[in-house]
Specification:
With about 250 residues, the chain is α/β, with parallel strands linked by helices. It has five helices and eight strands; from the N terminus they run αβββαβββαβαβα. The strands form two sheets. The protein has a six-stranded mixed β-sheet with strand order 1-5-4-7-3-8, with helices on both faces. A two-stranded antiparallel sheet has the order 2-6. β4 (about 130-135) and β5 form a beta hairpin.
Length: about 250
Amino acid sequence: MGNNGSTRGARKPSGNSSGSSSRKKPADGVSRRALLIGGGTVAAAGTAAVLARDELKRLWWQVPGVEKPRKPGELDYPGATWVAASEANWRRADRPDDFPVDRVIIHVTQGSFASAVKVFQDPAHQAATHYIVGQDGRVVQMIRELDVAYQAGNRAYNERAVGIEHEGFVDRPKDLTKAMYASSARLTASICARHGIPVDREHIIGHVEVPGTDHTDPGPHWDWDRYMELVRRAATAPPGPSPTPSAKA
């Protein structure tokens, strides 16, 4: 977050205050060049004012104690159902103003869909991801993309990434279903579009690829070639109706 700036009072101009009688009128023969230069100065000043206003509007959310407007249960992905994670498992932020979002991290839960939802609601767990995708393709969102999920064991990656859990176990390839791959790929393509993330393996990574992690997910059975092809197809598909929200978790 940015620091609060101090407000300084405007200083009055110094000089003769006897009134307008001491001012000289401009000469009658003002050149076209002077008018052009003067007009350009006014235009530049106007442009600068607009840019300054836009910058102030952007930085306003970085003032301590000021947050972007939020609505409880608001979704970033229309195909998801909202189930809130414990506030102990994530940190409030205003991304991408606070931190640019440039990664999607793929996880596997090592458990059932219901157990993943339960532990992310447990304040003692101290970890969660933004989304969970089930074997049947349903999606829940538990943390806003604005906020930082404690997901990867690496603060810098947490601050810049959106995380997706997938129901199953890393040593059971049957858990990685067709419905899960397809649903997750649409979700990842949507995240990449929202944040301008390139659809490639440098920016869509597994938890195992995060520096300093001791996790192995999504594991050796996660089919990266298949998944990335599905993400690319979803990213380039013509616009259609918004995804139907998943069944209640």
